[in-house]
Design a protein that fits this description.
The protein is mostly helical and 70 residues long. The chain is built from three helices and no strands. The protein has one domain. Helix 2 packs antiparallel against helix 3. The two termini are 20 Å apart.
Length: 70
């Protein structure tokens, strides 16, 4: 359980990353700094939930397979 908390904190600390494709980067450069930062935050926000769900499903699957082998 402690390992999960550490991983979760580590993932939250990386929220300052740039999550823009080449088209989004070009659009953000034309908008300026304020809207570009908001656009980047929106991309990260939209990507967080699906990645979290995939991580939870993968962890439960791994844990179930590990328990089945015992």
């Amino acid at each position: 359980m402690k390992r999960i908390i550490v991983i979760f904190i580590f993932l939250l600390s990386g929220l300052g990353v740039f999550a823009q494709c080449s088209i989004c980067t070009k659009t953000a450069q034309q908008l300026g700094d304020g809207p570009a930062h908001g656009m980047n935050s929106g991309i990260i926000y939209l990507a967080f939930i699906p990645l979290l769900v995939i991580g939870i499903v993968g962890y439960r699957w791994w844990k179930g397979e590990k328990a089945a082998r015992k």
